[in-house]
């Protein structure tokens, strides 16, 4: 057994990793520091400069990485992401997939949510991860790793995040089921609590932070992207070879059951 967290020789795709302050970027940087070749994924031309910053930071530190613009809710986008990864790293394998891309709708579910917002939320939370798993698993060698990034919103019951939590809950159930069906591949859910990123407007993040801090049991602080990235690294490493089909909260002790 290998007593290490090294990812030397591994190839990883991390979706939604093009924002410097996000969980995806923190995970990409950590994987690269531990030896993996990493594909950074971002969605739009508007976010390209930020993705380039993430890429440059990794490369300047001696890491191996590429950045690929692709809409991972579409078959075409997923195929592009997978093929550019294989071609750029001159490989026929993808060892690790982290489904981290997210879209947050915040607001009263019954009064204001539109059909378009429902479709967009579930496309990102459910359809995209399924498409990516279908596309990457054929390239995964024995002991591949899949991490689906969820949220404690899937269990906590936030009124303003009911749609977002519903999408994440659906993927939680799929991950649990696939944990029993996977062949020589582990698949787990990582569910962050309140993490200080810029995924929402500053005033919303501040309000949510005030609400969540009293529920945090470990320390009197909010979570940081690195707190989540460290757990993801552990789960994709050899040390987590006997862990699959699990929901792992990374919330400082905040629970919603």
TrEMBL record:
Belongs to the short-chain dehydrogenases/reductases (SDR) family. It comes from the Eukaryota. PROSITE patterns: ADH_SHORT (PS00061). GO terms for molecular function: oxidoreductase activity, acting on CH-OH group of donors. Keywords: NADP, Oxidoreductase. The keyword NADP applies. InterPro entries: KR_dom (IPR057326), NAD(P)-bd_dom_sf (IPR036291), Sc_DH/Rdtase_CS (IPR020904), SDR_fam (IPR002347). This is Ketoreductase domain-containing protein. It comes from Cytospora chrysosperma. Residues 10-193 form the Ketoreductase domain. The keyword Acetylation does not apply.
């Amino acid at each position: 057994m290998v007593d290490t967290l090294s990812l030397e020789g591994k190839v990883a795709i991390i979706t939604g990793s093009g924002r410097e302050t996000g969980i995806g970027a923190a995970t990409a940087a950590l994987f690269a520091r531990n030896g993996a070749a990493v594909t950074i994924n971002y969605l739009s031309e508007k976010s390209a400069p930020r993705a380039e910053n993430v890429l440059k930071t990794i490369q300047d530190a001696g890491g191996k990485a590429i950045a690929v613009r692709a809409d991972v809710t579409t078959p075409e986008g997923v195929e592009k992401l997978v093929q550019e990864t294989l071609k750029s790293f001159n490989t026929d394998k993808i060892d690790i997939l982290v489904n981290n891309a997210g879209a947050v709708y915040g607001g009263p579910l019954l009064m204001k949510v539109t059909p378009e917002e429902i479709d967009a939320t579930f496309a990102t939370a459910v359809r995209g991860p399924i498409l990516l798993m279908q596309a990457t698993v054929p390239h995964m060698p024995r002991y591949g790793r899949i991490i689906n990034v969820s949220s404690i919103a899937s269990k906590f019951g936030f009124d303003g995040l009911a749609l977002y939590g519903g999408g994440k809950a659906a993927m939680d159930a799929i991950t649990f089921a696939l944990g029993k069906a996977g062949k020589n591949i582990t698949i787990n859910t990582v569910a962050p609590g309140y993490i200080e990123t810029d995924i929402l407007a500053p005033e919303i993040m501040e309000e949510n932070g005030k609400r969540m801090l009293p529920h945090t049991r470990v320390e009197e602080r909010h979570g940081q992207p690195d707190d989540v990235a460290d757990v993801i690294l552990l789960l994709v490493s050899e040390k987590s070879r006997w862990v699959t089909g699990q929901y792992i909260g990374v919330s400082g002790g905040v629970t919603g059951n």
